[in-house]
Amino acid sequence: MGDHHHGPAKGLGRWLFTTNHKDIGTMYLWFSFAMFILGGFFAMVIRAELFQPGMQLVEPAFFNQMTTLHGLVMVFGAIMPSFVGLANWLIPMMIGAPDMALPRMNNWSFWILPPTFLLLASTLFMEGGAPAFGWTFYAPLSTTYAPPSVTFFIFSVHVLGLSSIMGSINIIATVMNMRAPGMTYMKMPLFVWTWLITAFLLVAVMPVLAGAVTMMLMDIHFGTSFFSAAGGGDPVLFQHVFWFFGHPEVYIIILPAFGVVSQIIPAFSRKPLFGYDSMVYATASIAFLSFIVWAHHMYTVGMPVAGELFFMYATMLIAVPTGVKVFNWISTMWRGALSFETPMLFSIGFLVLFTIGGFTGLMLSIAPSDFQYHDSYFVVAHFHYVMVAGAVFSMTAAVYFWLPKWCGKMYNETMGKTHFWISFVGFNLAFFPQHFVGLAGMPRRIPDYALQFADFNMMSSIGAFIYGASQIMFLYNVIATIVSGTPVSDEKVWDGAEGLEWTLPTPAPYHTFETPPKIDPAHAHS
Amino acid sequence: MPLLRCPRKSLWLGLGETDVPGLPGRGDNNNGSRLGGLLYYMETREMCFEAKRLFRLALGPVLMLMSAAALAAGAEVSQVNMRPGVTEVGKEIYDLHMIILWICTIIGAGVFGVMFYSIIYHRKSKGVVPATFHESTKVEIAWTIVPFFILIGMAVPATSTLLNIYDNDDADMDVLITGYQWKWKYEYLNENGENVTFFSNLRTPQNEIYNTESKGEHYLLEVDEPLVLPKDTKVRFLVTANDVIHSWWVPDLAVKKDAIPGFINEAWTRTSQEGIYRGQCAELCGKDHGFMPIVVNVVSQGEYDEWLSGKQAEAAEIKELMAQTFTLDELMERGKSVYDRSCLACHGANGEGGLGNAIANSAVATGELGEHLEIGINGVPGTAMQAFGGQMNDVDMAAVITYQRNAFGNNMGDMVQPIDVYNHKKG
Questions:
Q1: How far apart are CA B87 and CA B164, in angstroms?
Q2: What is the pLDDT of residue B29?
Q3: pLDDT band for position B192 (50/70/90)?
Q4: How confident is the model at residue A418, as a pLDDT?
Q5: How many Cα atoms are found within 13 Å in the side-chain-facing hemisphere of A83?
Q6: Domain CATH code at residue A53
Q7: Which of A238, A451, A461, A526 is most worth mutating to test chain B (most B CB atoms within 10 A of its CB)?
Q8: What rounded mean pLDDT belongs to chain B?
C-alpha cells in the first residue's frame, strides 16, 4: 500500500474524493457557516420587515417563505451540519482513532448536502414561491394548500435525513469500534458521549420525519388522505408524527453543544469536570425523556385532558437532568482558576442564556399557562435562547477553542472577545424583548403587528442586525487566522486543556493516531 | 402605558434631545409607496427614538416585575407581561404563570449568584490555585431530588387549572367558530329560534397597512362585525375550520383553541366584565395569517338580547331582499362593498390579481355568466379560491358577481339577481 504518511491530494479532487475525517470535517464546517449566513440573511429580511408596523419591504406571502426557509436552513443546514463537522474533526482525535469507521460513506453523507440545499433554495425562484408553511409544515397548509414547490421540499427533507442517518451510523460505528485500547466508555470525553447519544437519537427519529414527508407526498400526488379529514384522515396526526421527530430533534441540536461546553469549561477553570458520571447519566435521561414529551408542542390541538397531563408531567421532568448539568458546570467553575479567553466567554454566555431558555422551557411545559404562551413570541424568544445562545454560542466557542489545534495558528484574541461582547449584547437585545411582546399577546409568524408591539419589535430588529453583523467579524477572524495567524507558541495551545487531541502535534497532521495512543489507566477521564 | 408621560419629543441618539418639527409620530407616516416608506424611514427616523420609549425599554425587566402589582389592581393592560384578563380561568393561569416565573427567578438568582461569585473571586489572574475535587454523589443526589419536589409543587396547581380549562360542561349557550382563510365565522346555535350567522373580517384598510394613511388606534385588531357575548354567562365555543388549521386566541378570555378542519374542539369562557377584547389567529394559516383578528364585545344580558334580535331581524330582511329584483346601480353599490370585504385580499383593489387571478379583463368575468356564478358559489377545488356560496347570502353573491362583470373596465352590462343565485344553487 506504500507510504501511509502522505499528505492530502492536490486540487479540487482532494475535496471531492476525500475520505479523510479532517477534510470532511472542514467541509462540513464551512458549509454550515455558509448556510448560517444564508439563514441569517433570511432572518434579516424578517427583522427588517418587522422593524415598524405596516408592510414596507416584502409581501406577506414572501414573508412566510422567509420564516420557513430561515427555520429550515438554520436547523438542517447550519446547526446540525456544524456539529457533524465538529464530530468528524474531533471524535477520532479524542478516542485515539486514525479516522472515522466508514470513511467513504462519510464523504457521501457530506456531498449530498450542498446540492440538496441548492434545490431547497431554488424553490424561491419557482412559480408559486418557496414553501411558506413554516419549518414545522403543518398539514393541510403544507399539502392541499401548499405551493407546487412543496414536492422539491419533500425531496430535500428526504435527502437531508439520508445524510444525517449516514453520518450518525458512522459516528456510532466509530465510537463503538475504534476507541484506542484502554479508552473505555466511561473514559470518553463528554463531547464523544453526547454525540454518541445524539447519533442514536438521529437514527431513531430521522426515519419518522421521512415517514411524515412521504405521507405528505402521497396526499399531494397519489390521492391518499393521511392528513385530510375529508378522506378520513386527521391533520393532527401530522403534528404527532412531526413532533415525534421534532422534539428529539431539539436535543439532537443541543446535546453536542452540552458536550462542547463540558470540554471548554474545565479547560479554562483548570479543574476536572465536576460529576462526569452524572453528566453522562443526565444526557442519557434527557435523550430518553425526549421521546415521550412530543405533544407538549400541541397543548392547544384539543387532546384529551389525560394526554395533556401525561405530557405536562413528562416534560417538567426534563428540568431535573438539565438542572443537574447546569449545577455540574457551575461546580466545575467553583474554586477553579478561571481565565476568560474567547471560548470561555462564549461558554459562560451559553451557560447563562441557555439556563434562561431552560427556565422559559419549564414555564412552557405547564400546560394551562401554555394556552397563553403557545404560538406567541414568547415561544420564539424561548427557542432562540436555546438554539442560538445554546447551540450557536457553543459552536462558536468550539471553533475558537479548537481552531489553533486544527491550523496551528492563534486567532486574534481581542477581536474574539469583541465578537463575543457584540454578539452577547445583540442577541439579548434581539430576543429578550420578544418575551414581553409574546406575553402581551403578539402571535408568531405574522408580517405585521398591532401598534402596542412596535417599541419592542424595533428594539428586537436592531439587536438582530447587531448580532448578524458581528458574525462578519467572526468570519474575518477565522480567515485571518488560517491565512496569516501567528503560530501557536505552546504545542498544547491551552494550559488547562485535557484530552488526547491535545497530545497531538500542532497543527494536527493530516493523519493521526495511526498507531493507537497509550491511555493512562489511572487517569479518570479526559 | 402611562407610567411615564412626556410631550412628543424625539431623542436623536448621539445628538442629544431635539425637537424634530414635522417628524410624524408612530402611526402617521404618510409615505406613499412602500419602498418610499422605507427610504423615508431610513432618512429620518432610523436612529431616532422617543425618550419615553427608550426609558420604558431600558426598564422592561423591572416593569415586568412591577406590572404584577399593577395588574393585581386591574389597573391597565400590560405591555410586558401576561394579562389576567376578565375570566376566572385567566386569573388562575396568570397566578400560575407568576408563581413559576418567581420560582425560576429565585433559582436563577441563586445559580447565577454562585457562578458570578466564582467568576469574580476564583480567577487565575488573582493567583488562585485550582481545587481538584470533581465529584460528590451526595451533592448529585441532592440536586436531583430537590428540583423534583419543586416540580411536584408546580404540578399541583397546574393540574387543577388544567382541569378547570377542560370543564366544558353546563354551558348556557354555544357559539360555533369556524376559521376560514382569512376570517372567522360565528354561528350562534340557538335552540329556540333561528341560528344567527355572520363572518368577521379585518376592518383595517389596505392604505393603513401599506402606510399611505395614518394607522388607527386598533390597527390590525379591528373587525367589521365583532363576536357579541353576554357577561356572566358560560359560553361554550365549538371551534373548527373550513380549510387549514387556525387557532382562535383572545388573551383576555384566556382562550386559545386550534381550529382544525374536520374536527370540532371545545373551549369555554365566562367573562365578569363588560368590554371589548381583542385577539388574533395564532396558528400560521397562509398569506394573511397576520390579518384575521378577533374582537369580542362583552355586553350586559339586556344589550345582548337586543343585539341578537336585531341580527335575527336582519336575517329576515335579507330573506325578503332575496325575493326582490335590483337595478344595476343598486347591485354595483352593494357589490363594491362585498368585493372589498371578501375578494380584495386575493384579487386586488382594482381587480388586478395577486394571490388570485386578475378579475379585470379575465376570461371568467367577461365570459359566460353561468360559469362565473359557478366559480363564485362553488370555488375552484384544489386552489385558494373558496366556495363562497356558503359564506355570503344570495343578495351579496348576486351583487358581487354583477360588480365583477361591470367594474375594472369589464363592461359586460349584464347582471345577476338573487333569484339567479338561488336557482344556480338548486342546480
A1: 12
A2: 38
A3: low
A4: 97
A5: 33
A6: 1.20.210.10
A7: A451
A8: 82
Percent of chain B residues topping a pLDDT of 90: 53
* A272 vs B119, B134, B159: nearest CB: B134
Domain end: B102, B132, B165, which one? B165
Residue with cell 446540525: A80
Are B187 and B288 contained in the same domain? yes
**pLDDT tens, residue by residue, A28-43:** 999 999 999 999 999 9
Q: Environment class of residue A37 by beta-carbon count within 10 Å: exposed (0-12), middle (13-18) or buried (19+)?
A: middle
Residues B187 and B280 in one domain: yes
List the Cα angle B215/B220/B224 in 5-degree steps.
105
Please state, in angstroms and rounded to a whole number, the distance separating the CA atoms of residues B88 and B164: 10
- The reply to whether B299 and B381 lie within a common domain is no
Q: Which helix (H) or strand (E) holds A370?
A: helix A367-373
Q: What is the pLDDT of residue A9?
A: 82
Residues of A annotated catalytic, as ranges: 70, 99, 135, 163-164, 247, 249, 251, 262, 296-297, 322, 325, 444
Count up the domains in chain A and report the number.
Answer: 1
- If asked whether residues B126 and B159 sit together in one domain, one would say yes
Tell whether the model's pLDDT for residue B25 goes beyond 60.
no
Residue A516 lies inside a defined structural domain of this protein: no
Same domain, B310 and B326: no
- A432 contacts on B by Cβ (under 8 Å): 60-61
Same domain, B40 and B108: no
Residues B227 and B296: their CA atoms lie apart, in Å, by 5
Supply the range of the domain harboring residue A96: 28-503
For this complex, say whether ipTM is above 0.90. yes
User: What is the tally of structural domains in chain B?
Assistant: 4
Which structural domain, as residue segments, surrounds residue B407? 322-426
Q: What is the distance between the terminal CA atoms of chain B, rounded to a whole angstrom?
A: 58
Residue A8: DSSP 8-state = P
What letter represents residue A390's amino acid?
G
Verify that B393 and B302 share a domain, yes or no: no
Higher pLDDT, B33 or A105: A105
Measured at the CA of B129, the angle between CA B124 and CA B131, to 5 degrees, comes to 115
Q: Among B276, B293, B317, where does a domain finish?
A: B317
Is B358 among the domain residues? Answer: yes
Q: Which candidate, A407, A276, A398, A254, places its Cα nearest to that of A332?
A: A276
Interfacial A residues in 164-193 facing B (CB < 8 Å): none
